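Fold this sequence, please.
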Amino acid sequence: MSAQTLSGDAHLDLPEFDAPPGDPIAPARAWPAAAVARGVREPQQIHLAGPVEHRGDSVSDALFAERPRAAQATTAASRQSRPRDDEQALRRRAEDVRDSGAPIARPDGWAGYRLLPHRAEFWYGSPDRLHRRLACTRAGSGWSHQRLQP
């Protein structure tokens, strides 16, 4: 999954979900989840935890339409997380879809989801292992926070 937006009310939009065969996740219900974002150059992480909800077809269509055409084509040509035997064949399928000029429809199984965090932890690493950690927990309509030991 890729995070698209983080709104002011701490909702994280997660487009691009296509469950592997037999996956029990049903779009009609919320389920618990966690997400981690790591710093590329700095030893930083953000951990988010909370329920995830399906955004519905109209929002999913809009999220898919906002993607660059090449990303739409790759999504339409591939089956995310399934075994891949021939990379060149996959690339050719994606290029054929991209270059067709026809509108690219959102594939079945691709949907928008939203993580509704009830907990967030901000972590900044330190070589001496005295990491700085801040835990934030949803408390009613606001958030409480406290520093944690490494």
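The two ends are 29 Å apart (CA to CA). The first helix runs from residue 57 to 66.
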